[in-house]
Amino acid sequence: MTALLTILGIVLFVAGILISVALHELGHMLPAKAFGMKVTQFFVGFGRTVWSVKRGETEYGFKAIPAGGFVRIIGMMPPAKGQDPAEPLRVRKANTGPIQSMVENARSAEYETIAPEDNGRLFYQKVWWKKLIVMASGPLVNVVIATVLFGGLFMFYGANVAQTSVATVTDCVIPASQATADRQCIDTDKVSPAKQAGFQVGDKIVSFNGTQITSWDQLTPLIRANTDKPATIVVERNGAQLTLRTATIVNQVRDDAGSDKIVSVGFLGVSPEMKLERQGPGYVVDKMGELTVATVKAIGNFPQKLVGVAKSIVGGNRDENSPMSVVGASRVAGEIASNQSLTGGERIAFLVSLLASLNLFLALFNFIPLLPLDGGHMIGAIWEGIRRGLAKLFGRPDPGYVDVAKLLPIAYVAASAIVVMGVLLVIADIVNPIKLFNG
Q1: Cα–Cα distance between 150 and 143 in angstroms, integer?
Q2: Fewer CB within 10 Å, N- or C-terminus of the chain?
Q3: pLDDT digit string (tens) for 74-86?
Protein backbone atom coordinates (compact mmCIF):
# COMPACT_ATOMS: atom_id res chain seq x y z
CA MET A 1 0.00 0.00 0.00
CA THR A 2 2.85 2.39 0.86
CA ALA A 3 4.44 1.87 -2.58
CA LEU A 4 1.11 2.45 -4.33
CA LEU A 5 0.51 5.67 -2.36
CA THR A 6 4.03 6.85 -3.18
CA ILE A 7 3.47 6.27 -6.90
CA LEU A 8 0.05 7.93 -6.71
CA GLY A 9 1.53 10.99 -5.02
CA ILE A 10 4.25 11.28 -7.66
CA VAL A 11 1.81 10.81 -10.54
CA LEU A 12 -0.66 13.38 -9.19
CA PHE A 13 2.10 15.92 -8.55
CA VAL A 14 3.65 15.47 -12.00
CA ALA A 15 0.18 15.80 -13.54
CA GLY A 16 -0.27 19.05 -11.60
CA ILE A 17 3.07 20.32 -12.92
CA LEU A 18 2.16 19.47 -16.53
CA ILE A 19 -1.22 21.18 -16.19
CA SER A 20 0.52 24.25 -14.73
CA VAL A 21 2.98 24.28 -17.65
CA ALA A 22 0.15 23.94 -20.18
CA LEU A 23 -1.75 26.82 -18.58
CA HIS A 24 1.44 28.94 -18.54
CA GLU A 25 1.90 28.42 -22.27
CA LEU A 26 -1.82 29.01 -22.83
CA GLY A 27 -1.28 32.35 -21.09
CA HIS A 28 1.21 33.25 -23.82
CA MET A 29 -0.78 31.82 -26.72
CA LEU A 30 -4.25 33.27 -26.14
CA PRO A 31 -3.23 36.96 -26.11
CA ALA A 32 -0.80 36.33 -28.98
CA LYS A 33 -3.63 34.99 -31.13
CA ALA A 34 -5.95 37.76 -29.90
CA PHE A 35 -3.41 40.36 -31.09
CA GLY A 36 -3.13 38.71 -34.50
CA MET A 37 0.29 37.11 -34.02
CA LYS A 38 1.02 33.85 -35.80
CA VAL A 39 1.39 30.90 -33.42
CA THR A 40 2.60 27.70 -35.12
CA GLN A 41 3.26 25.38 -32.16
CA PHE A 42 1.93 24.71 -28.66
CA PHE A 43 3.75 21.86 -26.90
CA VAL A 44 4.08 20.50 -23.39
CA GLY A 45 7.51 18.92 -22.90
CA PHE A 46 10.68 18.87 -24.98
CA GLY A 47 12.46 16.41 -27.28
CA ARG A 48 10.78 13.93 -29.60
CA THR A 49 7.10 14.48 -30.37
CA VAL A 50 4.92 11.80 -28.75
CA TRP A 51 1.59 13.04 -30.05
CA SER A 52 0.36 16.09 -31.92
CA VAL A 53 -2.59 17.41 -33.86
CA LYS A 54 -2.89 20.47 -36.07
CA ARG A 55 -5.80 22.86 -35.72
CA GLY A 56 -5.72 25.73 -38.16
CA GLU A 57 -2.17 27.10 -38.31
CA THR A 58 -1.18 25.77 -34.86
CA GLU A 59 0.18 22.32 -33.99
CA TYR A 60 -0.71 21.12 -30.47
CA GLY A 61 1.00 18.20 -28.78
CA PHE A 62 3.21 16.51 -26.20
CA LYS A 63 6.95 15.91 -26.24
CA ALA A 64 8.81 12.96 -24.71
CA ILE A 65 10.57 14.85 -21.89
CA PRO A 66 7.98 16.33 -19.46
CA ALA A 67 10.22 19.20 -18.34
CA GLY A 68 8.54 22.41 -19.43
CA GLY A 69 6.83 23.48 -22.60
CA PHE A 70 6.80 26.12 -25.29
CA VAL A 71 4.69 28.19 -27.64
CA ARG A 72 6.24 29.19 -30.94
CA ILE A 73 5.25 32.72 -31.92
CA ILE A 74 6.66 33.68 -35.30
CA GLY A 75 8.96 36.70 -35.60
CA MET A 76 10.32 37.02 -32.06
CA MET A 77 13.46 38.67 -33.50
CA PRO A 78 13.35 41.67 -35.90
CA PRO A 79 15.26 41.57 -39.21
CA ALA A 80 18.79 42.94 -39.43
CA LYS A 81 19.28 46.71 -39.40
CA GLY A 82 18.64 48.23 -42.80
CA GLN A 83 16.51 45.35 -44.02
CA ASP A 84 13.02 46.07 -45.31
CA PRO A 85 10.57 44.81 -42.69
CA ALA A 86 8.18 43.91 -45.48
CA GLU A 87 10.69 41.36 -46.78
CA PRO A 88 11.65 39.36 -43.68
CA LEU A 89 13.12 36.47 -45.67
CA ARG A 90 16.13 38.48 -46.82
CA VAL A 91 18.54 38.08 -43.93
CA ARG A 92 22.11 39.16 -44.58
CA LYS A 93 24.92 36.65 -44.31
CA ALA A 94 26.76 36.42 -41.01
CA ASN A 95 30.40 37.23 -41.72
CA THR A 96 31.48 39.84 -39.19
CA GLY A 97 32.85 37.66 -36.36
CA PRO A 98 31.73 34.76 -34.16
CA ILE A 99 29.26 36.72 -32.03
CA GLN A 100 27.68 38.50 -34.98
CA SER A 101 27.63 35.19 -36.82
CA MET A 102 25.76 33.59 -33.92
CA VAL A 103 23.18 36.36 -33.97
CA GLU A 104 22.64 36.32 -37.71
CA ASN A 105 22.47 32.53 -37.94
CA ALA A 106 19.75 32.56 -35.28
CA ARG A 107 17.98 35.33 -37.16
CA SER A 108 18.21 33.34 -40.42
CA ALA A 109 16.77 30.24 -38.76
CA GLU A 110 13.93 32.35 -37.34
CA TYR A 111 12.90 33.60 -40.78
CA GLU A 112 13.21 30.35 -42.72
CA THR A 113 9.61 29.46 -41.85
CA ILE A 114 8.18 32.93 -42.43
CA ALA A 115 6.19 33.55 -45.60
CA PRO A 116 5.60 36.97 -47.20
CA GLU A 117 1.92 36.82 -46.20
CA ASP A 118 2.99 36.69 -42.54
CA ASN A 119 4.09 40.31 -42.72
CA GLY A 120 2.16 42.29 -40.12
CA ARG A 121 1.59 39.23 -37.94
CA LEU A 122 5.15 38.91 -36.62
CA PHE A 123 5.76 39.33 -32.90
CA TYR A 124 8.37 42.08 -33.25
CA GLN A 125 6.06 44.16 -35.47
CA LYS A 126 3.41 44.58 -32.77
CA VAL A 127 3.21 47.61 -30.50
CA TRP A 128 5.33 47.27 -27.35
CA TRP A 129 2.45 46.92 -24.89
CA LYS A 130 0.98 43.98 -26.81
CA LYS A 131 4.34 42.22 -26.69
CA LEU A 132 4.57 42.94 -22.98
CA ILE A 133 1.12 41.45 -22.34
CA VAL A 134 1.93 38.32 -24.33
CA MET A 135 5.18 37.65 -22.47
CA ALA A 136 3.85 38.61 -19.00
CA SER A 137 0.66 36.57 -19.28
CA GLY A 138 2.49 33.22 -18.98
CA PRO A 139 4.05 33.78 -15.54
CA LEU A 140 0.97 35.73 -14.42
CA VAL A 141 -1.06 32.57 -15.00
CA ASN A 142 1.28 30.79 -12.57
CA VAL A 143 0.66 33.57 -10.04
CA VAL A 144 -3.08 33.04 -10.46
CA ILE A 145 -2.67 29.27 -10.03
CA ALA A 146 -0.62 29.78 -6.86
CA THR A 147 -3.17 32.26 -5.49
CA VAL A 148 -6.12 29.95 -6.22
CA LEU A 149 -4.38 26.94 -4.67
CA PHE A 150 -3.16 28.79 -1.59
CA GLY A 151 -6.46 30.65 -1.29
CA GLY A 152 -8.50 27.45 -1.45
CA LEU A 153 -6.17 25.84 1.06
CA PHE A 154 -6.34 28.69 3.60
CA MET A 155 -10.05 29.45 3.21
CA PHE A 156 -11.54 25.93 2.99
CA TYR A 157 -8.98 23.73 4.77
CA GLY A 158 -7.35 26.27 7.06
CA ALA A 159 -3.94 27.57 8.10
CA ASN A 160 -1.92 26.64 11.15
CA VAL A 161 -2.17 29.55 13.57
CA ALA A 162 0.08 29.76 16.64
CA GLN A 163 -1.89 29.79 19.89
CA THR A 164 -0.74 31.19 23.23
CA SER A 165 -0.53 27.68 24.67
CA VAL A 166 2.83 25.91 24.97
CA ALA A 167 3.32 22.81 22.79
CA THR A 168 6.95 21.99 23.63
CA VAL A 169 9.46 23.02 26.28
CA THR A 170 13.09 22.95 25.13
CA ASP A 171 15.42 21.10 27.51
CA CYS A 172 18.59 22.96 26.53
CA VAL A 173 19.90 25.92 24.56
CA ILE A 174 21.17 24.96 21.08
CA PRO A 175 22.36 27.76 18.71
CA ALA A 176 20.69 27.76 15.31
CA SER A 177 24.08 27.28 13.65
CA GLN A 178 24.35 23.89 15.41
CA ALA A 179 20.71 22.82 15.21
CA THR A 180 20.09 19.74 13.07
CA ALA A 181 17.32 17.17 12.97
CA ASP A 182 19.34 14.70 15.05
CA ARG A 183 21.06 17.18 17.41
CA GLN A 184 20.44 16.18 21.02
CA CYS A 185 21.25 18.00 24.27
CA ILE A 186 24.75 17.37 25.60
CA ASP A 187 26.32 18.02 29.00
CA THR A 188 27.90 21.33 27.94
CA ASP A 189 24.58 22.80 26.76
CA LYS A 190 22.89 25.27 29.05
CA VAL A 191 19.48 24.41 30.49
CA SER A 192 16.79 26.45 28.77
CA PRO A 193 15.20 29.31 30.74
CA ALA A 194 11.76 27.76 30.21
CA LYS A 195 12.91 24.48 31.72
CA GLN A 196 14.41 26.31 34.69
CA ALA A 197 11.19 28.28 35.21
CA GLY A 198 9.08 25.11 35.32
CA PHE A 199 7.05 25.53 32.12
CA GLN A 200 4.83 22.58 31.21
CA VAL A 201 3.20 21.55 27.96
CA GLY A 202 -0.30 23.04 27.84
CA ASP A 203 0.53 26.18 29.83
CA LYS A 204 -1.32 29.17 28.40
CA ILE A 205 0.80 32.32 28.53
CA VAL A 206 -1.20 35.20 29.99
CA SER A 207 1.45 37.91 30.35
CA PHE A 208 5.16 38.56 29.89
CA ASN A 209 6.82 41.14 32.16
CA GLY A 210 3.45 42.75 32.81
CA THR A 211 2.33 42.87 29.15
CA GLN A 212 -0.91 40.99 28.48
CA ILE A 213 -0.41 38.40 25.73
CA THR A 214 -3.11 37.87 23.12
CA SER A 215 -1.08 36.12 20.38
CA TRP A 216 2.21 34.30 19.90
CA ASP A 217 3.25 36.89 17.30
CA GLN A 218 3.01 39.48 20.07
CA LEU A 219 5.05 37.34 22.50
CA THR A 220 8.00 36.49 20.22
CA PRO A 221 9.39 40.06 19.84
CA LEU A 222 9.01 40.63 23.59
CA ILE A 223 11.13 37.57 24.35
CA ARG A 224 13.74 38.52 21.76
CA ALA A 225 13.99 42.10 23.02
CA ASN A 226 14.44 40.88 26.61
CA THR A 227 17.94 39.54 25.74
CA ASP A 228 19.43 38.19 29.02
CA LYS A 229 17.25 40.15 31.46
CA PRO A 230 14.90 38.76 34.14
CA ALA A 231 11.46 37.63 32.94
CA THR A 232 8.23 37.23 34.86
CA ILE A 233 5.66 35.15 33.00
CA VAL A 234 2.10 34.49 34.15
CA VAL A 235 0.61 31.26 32.79
CA GLU A 236 -2.75 29.56 33.14
CA ARG A 237 -2.49 25.91 34.16
CA ASN A 238 -5.46 23.68 35.02
CA GLY A 239 -7.70 26.73 35.38
CA ALA A 240 -5.41 28.59 37.79
CA GLN A 241 -2.86 31.31 37.13
CA LEU A 242 0.79 30.76 38.11
CA THR A 243 3.70 33.18 38.07
CA LEU A 244 6.96 31.77 36.67
CA ARG A 245 10.26 33.58 36.99
CA THR A 246 13.48 33.14 35.06
CA ALA A 247 15.94 35.09 32.94
CA THR A 248 15.97 34.77 29.17
CA ILE A 249 19.30 34.04 27.53
CA VAL A 250 20.88 35.42 24.35
CA ASN A 251 20.91 32.67 21.75
CA GLN A 252 21.31 32.29 17.98
CA VAL A 253 17.93 31.76 16.31
CA ARG A 254 16.64 32.02 12.77
CA ASP A 255 15.17 35.41 12.01
CA ASP A 256 11.99 33.81 10.65
CA ALA A 257 10.79 30.26 10.13
CA GLY A 258 12.66 28.82 7.16
CA SER A 259 14.97 31.84 6.97
CA ASP A 260 18.73 31.50 6.51
CA LYS A 261 19.41 34.66 8.48
CA ILE A 262 20.60 33.96 12.03
CA VAL A 263 20.27 36.60 14.74
CA SER A 264 21.36 36.73 18.38
CA VAL A 265 18.33 37.61 20.52
CA GLY A 266 16.59 36.75 23.75
CA PHE A 267 15.56 33.10 24.04
CA LEU A 268 13.07 31.40 26.39
CA GLY A 269 12.75 27.86 25.03
CA VAL A 270 9.06 27.28 24.33
CA SER A 271 7.14 26.71 21.11
CA PRO A 272 3.43 27.30 20.52
CA GLU A 273 0.55 24.94 20.01
CA MET A 274 -0.67 25.19 16.42
CA LYS A 275 -4.36 25.15 15.55
CA LEU A 276 -5.90 24.80 12.12
CA GLU A 277 -8.22 27.75 11.45
CA ARG A 278 -10.06 28.73 8.27
CA GLN A 279 -9.06 32.15 7.00
CA GLY A 280 -10.66 34.93 4.97
CA PRO A 281 -9.61 36.69 1.74
CA GLY A 282 -7.61 39.29 3.69
CA TYR A 283 -5.39 36.60 5.15
CA VAL A 284 -4.85 35.14 1.66
CA VAL A 285 -3.74 38.53 0.31
CA ASP A 286 -1.37 39.11 3.24
CA LYS A 287 0.03 35.60 3.04
CA MET A 288 0.59 35.81 -0.72
CA GLY A 289 2.57 38.98 -0.11
CA GLU A 290 4.69 37.24 2.52
CA LEU A 291 5.23 34.20 0.29
CA THR A 292 6.17 36.40 -2.67
CA VAL A 293 8.80 38.25 -0.64
CA ALA A 294 10.15 34.95 0.73
CA THR A 295 10.33 33.45 -2.77
CA VAL A 296 12.15 36.50 -4.16
CA LYS A 297 14.69 36.19 -1.34
CA ALA A 298 15.07 32.47 -2.07
CA ILE A 299 15.76 33.20 -5.74
CA GLY A 300 18.33 35.80 -4.71
CA ASN A 301 20.06 33.22 -2.49
CA PHE A 302 19.82 30.50 -5.15
CA PRO A 303 23.47 30.62 -6.33
CA GLN A 304 24.72 30.54 -2.73
CA LYS A 305 22.46 27.61 -1.92
CA LEU A 306 23.79 25.67 -4.91
CA VAL A 307 27.22 25.57 -3.29
CA GLY A 308 25.76 23.59 -0.40
CA VAL A 309 23.85 21.39 -2.85
CA ALA A 310 27.08 20.62 -4.74
CA LYS A 311 28.83 19.70 -1.48
CA SER A 312 25.95 17.40 -0.53
CA ILE A 313 26.52 15.38 -3.70
CA VAL A 314 29.98 14.31 -2.51
CA GLY A 315 28.88 13.44 1.01
CA GLY A 316 28.02 16.67 2.80
CA ASN A 317 24.82 17.23 4.76
CA ARG A 318 21.84 18.33 2.65
CA ASP A 319 20.11 21.40 4.11
CA GLU A 320 16.37 20.71 4.34
CA ASN A 321 15.77 24.29 3.13
CA SER A 322 18.00 23.89 0.06
CA PRO A 323 16.45 24.13 -3.43
CA MET A 324 15.41 20.99 -5.25
CA SER A 325 14.52 19.99 -8.78
CA VAL A 326 11.19 18.73 -10.06
CA VAL A 327 12.59 15.24 -9.47
CA GLY A 328 13.17 16.06 -5.80
CA ALA A 329 9.79 17.74 -5.45
CA SER A 330 8.08 14.72 -6.99
CA ARG A 331 9.91 12.40 -4.59
CA VAL A 332 8.76 14.57 -1.68
CA ALA A 333 5.19 14.40 -3.03
CA GLY A 334 5.42 10.61 -3.00
CA GLU A 335 6.84 10.67 0.53
CA ILE A 336 3.99 12.86 1.73
CA ALA A 337 1.30 10.75 0.05
CA SER A 338 2.57 7.55 1.67
CA ASN A 339 3.22 8.94 5.17
CA GLN A 340 0.86 7.09 7.49
CA SER A 341 1.38 9.56 10.34
CA LEU A 342 -0.53 12.21 8.40
CA THR A 343 -4.28 12.31 7.92
CA GLY A 344 -5.74 12.26 4.43
CA GLY A 345 -6.54 15.96 4.68
CA GLU A 346 -3.01 16.79 5.78
CA ARG A 347 -1.53 14.89 2.85
CA ILE A 348 -3.76 16.64 0.33
CA ALA A 349 -3.00 20.03 1.91
CA PHE A 350 0.73 19.31 1.79
CA LEU A 351 0.60 18.36 -1.91
CA VAL A 352 -1.53 21.39 -2.80
CA SER A 353 0.88 23.66 -0.92
CA LEU A 354 3.86 22.10 -2.69
CA LEU A 355 2.29 22.61 -6.13
CA ALA A 356 1.26 26.18 -5.26
CA SER A 357 4.79 27.00 -4.06
CA LEU A 358 6.26 25.61 -7.28
CA ASN A 359 3.91 27.77 -9.39
CA LEU A 360 4.86 30.89 -7.44
CA PHE A 361 8.56 30.11 -7.85
CA LEU A 362 8.20 29.50 -11.61
CA ALA A 363 6.31 32.76 -12.03
CA LEU A 364 8.83 34.91 -10.17
CA PHE A 365 11.81 33.12 -11.73
CA ASN A 366 10.38 33.81 -15.20
CA PHE A 367 10.05 37.50 -14.35
CA ILE A 368 13.86 37.80 -14.09
CA PRO A 369 14.77 40.34 -16.84
CA LEU A 370 17.16 38.02 -18.65
CA LEU A 371 16.79 36.05 -21.86
CA PRO A 372 15.74 33.30 -22.50
CA LEU A 373 13.27 33.87 -19.64
CA ASP A 374 9.99 35.71 -20.23
CA GLY A 375 11.36 38.66 -18.28
CA GLY A 376 14.07 39.17 -20.90
CA HIS A 377 11.46 39.71 -23.62
CA MET A 378 9.39 41.85 -21.27
CA ILE A 379 12.25 44.22 -20.52
CA GLY A 380 12.92 44.47 -24.27
CA ALA A 381 9.30 45.48 -24.90
CA ILE A 382 9.38 48.01 -22.05
CA TRP A 383 12.64 49.54 -23.29
CA GLU A 384 11.17 49.79 -26.77
CA GLY A 385 8.15 51.64 -25.40
CA ILE A 386 10.38 54.05 -23.45
CA ARG A 387 12.65 54.76 -26.44
CA ARG A 388 9.81 55.36 -28.84
CA GLY A 389 7.87 57.39 -26.30
CA LEU A 390 10.83 59.69 -25.62
CA ALA A 391 11.54 60.06 -29.33
CA LYS A 392 7.95 61.09 -29.98
CA LEU A 393 7.97 63.46 -27.00
CA PHE A 394 11.08 65.30 -28.16
CA GLY A 395 10.29 65.18 -31.88
CA ARG A 396 13.11 62.81 -32.75
CA PRO A 397 13.12 60.08 -35.41
CA ASP A 398 11.54 56.78 -34.43
CA PRO A 399 14.38 54.56 -33.07
CA GLY A 400 12.59 51.43 -34.30
CA TYR A 401 12.27 48.03 -32.70
CA VAL A 402 14.54 46.77 -29.93
CA ASP A 403 16.69 44.01 -31.44
CA VAL A 404 16.66 41.27 -28.77
CA ALA A 405 18.73 39.11 -31.14
CA LYS A 406 21.80 41.09 -30.07
CA LEU A 407 21.33 39.66 -26.57
CA LEU A 408 21.46 36.05 -27.78
CA PRO A 409 25.07 35.45 -26.64
CA ILE A 410 24.01 36.41 -23.11
CA ALA A 411 20.89 34.29 -23.48
CA TYR A 412 22.97 31.25 -24.45
CA VAL A 413 25.17 31.71 -21.39
CA ALA A 414 22.13 32.13 -19.14
CA ALA A 415 20.42 29.07 -20.66
CA SER A 416 23.58 27.01 -20.18
CA ALA A 417 23.77 28.12 -16.53
CA ILE A 418 20.11 27.18 -15.99
CA VAL A 419 20.72 23.73 -17.49
CA VAL A 420 23.82 23.17 -15.33
CA MET A 421 21.94 24.24 -12.20
CA GLY A 422 19.05 21.97 -13.11
CA VAL A 423 21.32 18.97 -13.67
CA LEU A 424 23.12 19.67 -10.39
CA LEU A 425 19.82 19.70 -8.49
CA VAL A 426 18.63 16.49 -10.15
CA ILE A 427 21.85 14.68 -9.23
CA ALA A 428 21.62 15.93 -5.63
CA ASP A 429 17.97 14.87 -5.42
CA ILE A 430 18.97 11.36 -6.51
CA VAL A 431 22.13 10.76 -4.44
CA ASN A 432 21.29 12.86 -1.37
CA PRO A 433 17.58 13.77 -1.39
CA ILE A 434 15.82 16.05 1.07
CA LYS A 435 13.79 14.04 3.58
CA LEU A 436 10.94 15.76 5.34
CA PHE A 437 10.24 12.83 7.64
CA ASN A 438 12.59 10.55 9.52
CA GLY A 439 12.53 6.85 8.98
Answers
A1: 10
A2: C
A3: 988 877 666 654 4
